[in-house]
Amino acid sequence: xxxxxxxxxxxxxxxxxxxxxxxxxxxxxxxxxxxxxxxxxxxxxxxxxxxxxxxxxxxxxxxxxxxxxxxxxxxxxxxxxxxxxxxxxxxxxxxxxxxxxxxxxxxxxxxxxxxxxxxxxxxxxxxxxxxxxxxxxxxxxx
Length: 142
Known about the structure:
This protein is of the alpha+beta class. The chain contains six helices and four strands. A four-stranded mixed sheet has the order 2-1-3-4.
């Protein structure tokens, strides 16, 4: 019988290599991805720890140095709240102002920002515990 493979969740890191915090977040997520991939391939027939110690399934990691599109930015605002607009876009007063500022200067978008598109979560900045919580969370059941 054929079995449909589940599509992996996608986590995107809006990254800027010249920002030390962004580089640390990238390393953190790569380490978490490596751990998820390793534990997803272990022989679980003899090991039942996955029942008592749930972990994140493997995921796709997309790293981009580009600013988000308007649609992506709206979605990120939905995830983190529009009260965080100044944390995401330097000097922005509101969502509309943020869109204008990014269109004029993509570097106005503050990085790092980590987004789990499939589970509707985003972390602004270098909050390691929030990022690990997001990365290690069990995927929503279908």
